[in-house]
Input
Amino acid sequence: MKTIKKLFIPTLLLFSFLSFSQTKEDFDKLKNEITEQSIALDLKQKKSEKATAFLVELKNSDPKNSLIKQKTEEVEKLKMEVLKIKSNLYELNLKKEKLQLSLISSTSSENVANLHSLSKEIESKYQVHLLNEFAKKKFKNTKTTYKATILNTNFSIPIARFNFSKNDSLNKGNIQLFNSIGAGFGVSWGSMTDYRDENGELENSDFANTFSIHAGVLFSAGNNNNVFAPVISIGILDFQLGLGYELGNIDVNQKRSFVTIGYAIPLYKLVKGKYWFVKKSGIINEVKFDN
Output
């Protein structure tokens, strides 16, 4: 990881300086042209050397040969072409150096600031990575229990519902049992237990509710009894005590407000991880297992 970090930042710097501008395009074209000219120079030099060697051999073997004049002119012509390509390469390399300076100087102070900010961000993420790796090693083969506050959803099964009566001094209300079902969301305070394996990876988590506040609705449908009631409730462990307001059908002498006692079934009990941490605090207990 350290090697990747050391290589990653210089690479970002390089590619940021060499932006895809017109200057960069000219620079690339110039590099290609220099490569082509270098190949042409190499071929021309080899051809010139071969022609020169043939001319020397011809002069030594037959000084009066009529081809000597023709071959001499060919050799001189090849030497001139070699010099011309070298001169062209020299000018191209000068242009290349100027473009390199232009590319470097064109990097704005804003880009430099962005690169500095990016570098700090990479460093920060790397430090987080190191802390995470350290934490995994520290808590491997452990069961850790700590205080936690979570936002979660839940189903609610009202065990008993007390409906208040109106205009009746003797009868304060009536009780209904298991007449609806509910769903809602809320904030729960309790303890979270994490189980980690020999590599420090999280295997499972289990939340135990101590106190909670929830909002939701109760609903059901029947021939003469339709229930749809917003409810606010407080929970102790998995039991809830709520206050609701009925929007569905009610009896003539019944008030719309009611009290309900129910049992909550949190969604995280049915599907793993269906909650969101609001706060984590101190460790309550930690147990290490044998390897």
